[in-house]
Amino acid sequence: METANRKKVVATGNGAGGRRLFGLALTLAILLSAVPSAHALPSYSRQTGQACSSCHVGGNWPQLTPWGRFFKLSGYTAGKSLWGGKAGVAYVPVGVFGQVGVTWAAQPNDSQGNVVVPQNGSPQAYEFTAELGTKLTDFAGIFYEYTLGNTFPGWKGTTGAADVRAVHFFHPGGQEILVGIDSNNNPTDQDVWNTLPGWGYPYYASPQSLSGPASPVISGGLAGQAASIGMYALWNRQVYAEFSAYHVADDFFRWMSGGTNFANATYIDGFDPYWRIYWTKEHGSHTFMVGTVGMHTNIFPSGAMPSGPTDAFTDYGFDAQYDYMGGRNKASVRVRYIHENQSWDASFPQGASSTPNGNIRTWNVNGTYTLRDRWAFTGGYFASDGSSNADLYAVTDPAGNLLSASPNTTGYTMEVDRNLTQNLKLTAQYNGFFKFNGLTSNIDGLGRTPGDNNTFWLSMFMAF
Amino acid sequence: MGKELRVKTCNRFAVSVLGGVIALLLISPLAFAQNAPRIVTWNCSGCHGVNGNAQQRHYPRLAALDASYIEQRMAAFQAAPTPPVDELVYRLVKPGAFRKVAAGSTPEARADMVGIAHAATPEETKASAAWYSAQKPGRGQSADSGSIERGKGLFADGIPDKGVVACQTCHGAQGEGSPAAPRLGGQNRSYLAIQLWHFRAGDRTHPTEMTSSTARFDSEQIRAIAAYLASQ
Questions:
Q1: CA torsion A205→A211→A216→A222, rounded to 10°?
Q2: Among A221, A420, B27, B216, which residue's CB has the most CB atoms within a 10 Å radius?
Q3: In Å, how far is B227's CA from the nearest CA of chain A?
Q4: Which of A282, A423, A464 has the CB atom closest to B55's CB atom?
Q5: Please, where are the H alpha helices in A267-362?
Q6: Which phi and psi (to 5°) does residue B140 adopt?
Q7: Set of chain A residues whose Cβ sits within 8 Å of the Cβ of B222
Q8: What is the pLDDT of residue B96?
Q9: A181 secondary structure, DSSP code
Q10: Binary contact (A251, B10; C-beta < 8 A)
Q11: Which one of A285, A328, A424 makes the best mutation probe of the B interface by having the most chain B beta carbons within 10 Å?
Q12: How far, in Å, CA of A37 to CA of A4, rounded?
């Protein structure tokens, strides 16, 4: 799962996990959630014999090229058969990753010397990941990661992205319909566009960096905690429709939620629906997409007691992407809007939410220019706003006076990536804030400004 | 919902999915039998299109190309060493082996085609070549008229004072191809230009006539020829 989204799992104000964490110091709660990232899979390269840049724009994963999108939609099935080799297994269907980096914050401590950004300026190892990514049969494939991640302090093993799908093509009346069945462990991870939260920008972020206090459930709030069964269809490679149902990832789905303690997890009730529709068109080297996505979830206030009333969340969003795939230079622009309606049907009566209803809206706009499949330059703007909720988003001064109960946060990200080889990527990323927690100054009651939360991150990513 | 009930519901769902997969398997051979070879749909069409008219300009259009030419190109890809996934390891530990890979084909072919061609059987190669050869070529692509005119002149006449023979000598008056050379009319402009640059640089060395001819073209002339041919 991309780091940013995993961070939001604990940063979100949704459900019991979010509320509990918001009883803690705001930013530290966000900081200490070192989490796995999602990656390009070297094993797919072994399977297809292709370079990373065939499926990922300029080799700068996880951005997908048109071919990369098709490879995923067609069940990761292109290339060799795993069992087709004369000596048995035709290729090694696994790979490994590692990521190290160093983060500098504009102000790593608050005005009283308390640490806000830990290990500031100190090189850190973030994760070691093993992946299994392969065609299983001529019509099915799998994408599976297991990560040992730095939790500052300590290390923890968790399942990363997991996606398994089976696909076939049908041709009624000269048309083409690709039909697939999919199971995954994070809503929107199954999507092939880089607009939705699962694979949206920022693709990676320092586990030490900060993000706003709230985001919709669909933006990573169920990552590694829910699992789906779904079906999708792609008509003439232009119109895509999907319907999936998510269930808490225990029992049958436990292999998708390794490391998750459900007592502390966002625990959904029953099967919750997810839907996705988009239209896309290739015209020469230009690709356009517009789409919509949505999900409804019922979440128990406490994962330790998954029974009784639930809080309800309905998310819906709209997204669009434009790609220009020139020979060696490429460009993409991506836009996403998500609106979430919240009904605190369980938490409000229990006094865990100060309002019976609420909402969150998020906007993301970003673009990437890829130069000669080696350099990638990305800039993005993000914003979230929503209804105030003193139980979820409260910021108080040392005297206990409420400064803000708003989740509103805006900021930007700028990034330069350099692929030294297929196996080695360097990233420099600057993450800045205009507004944090509804405030443009004194965001902690101690004089801290949003800009004090800005971070600069250097990272090296290795994949073999 | 109680835990026991959840497990039962979950298991029912799993059985339903399994049933769905089996149903898909049972009916799929009928669907495949009526259409493009499996390798075309699953492996080739993502870049080249089912009908061989690749949308993205840096991929070649395969529609109406001579089947033997497609097979010849596939054979060249299959003869090239498979690009290593672990590029860094090869560069550090076995630089000689990496140079061998890098010397075998153009960068684009190494990235996109060599590996996938290795996965194709001889039967699949033949079937895909026959399919694409039988497809109808797409419409030509627009470009500025000046480039097209310059390209047309170069294609028709070559550059006599530099000893460059006319392209049409082998590729046909309209770029329709001949037994000796592939169809170029309607080919994607970026793909053509990139290939001509590779011929000029010696990255793509076959056939030798192309290397010697393109050595005397400048980049503007290459772009003009590509614009003209793409417009056909």
A1: 50
A2: A221
A3: 14
A4: A282
A5: none
A6: -70, 160
A7: none
A8: 80
A9: E
A10: yes
A11: A285
A12: 8
Q: Which pair of structure tokens corresponds to residue A258?
A: 């390794």
Question: Which residues have a Cβ under 8 Å from the Cβ of B196 and sit 6 or more positions away?
Answer: B214, B217, B222, B225, B226
- In sequence order, what are the beta bridge partners of B202? none
Q: Does the distance separating the beta carbons of A283 and B119 come in below 8 Å? A: no
Least confident span in A25-29, A49-53, A87-91, A159-163: A25-29
Q: What is the pLDDT of residue B33?
A: 41
Q: What is the reported pLDDT for B88?
A: 83
Are A51 and B109 in contact, with CB atoms under 8 Å apart? no
Give percent above pLDDT 90 in chain A.
76
Phi, psi of B229 (to 5 degrees): -65, -40
> CB-side exposure of A104: number of CA atoms within 13 Å?
7
Instruction: Copy the structure tokens of residue A113.
Output: 């010397």
Distance CA A391, CA A359 (A): 14
Query: What's at B35, amino acid-wise?
Result: N
- Best-predicted range by mean pLDDT among A113-122, A315-324, A367-376, B77-86? A315-324
- State the pLDDT at residue A344: 96
pLDDT value, residue B14: 66
Q: Give the model's pLDDT for residue B205.
A: 75
| CB neighbour burial string for A117-154, b if at least 16 within 10 angstroms, e if fewer | bbbbeeebebbbbebebbbbeebbbbbbbbbbbbebee
Is B93 a residue whose pLDDT tops 50? yes
* C-alpha distance from B160 to closest chain A C-alpha (Å): 31
Q: For position A286, what pLDDT does the model report?
A: 95
The string of DSSP codes covering A27-57 is HHHHHT---------HHHHHHH---HHHHBG
Instruction: Answer for the pair A248, A268: CB distance below 8 angstroms, yes or no.
Output: yes
Residue A146 forms beta bridges with which residues? A130, A159
Any alpha helices (H) in A49-205, and if so which ranges? 52-55, 66-73
The whole-angstrom distance between B31's CA and the closest CA on chain A is 5
Element (DSSP H or E) covering residue A411 = strand A409-421
Residue B22 has pLDDT above 90, yes or no: no
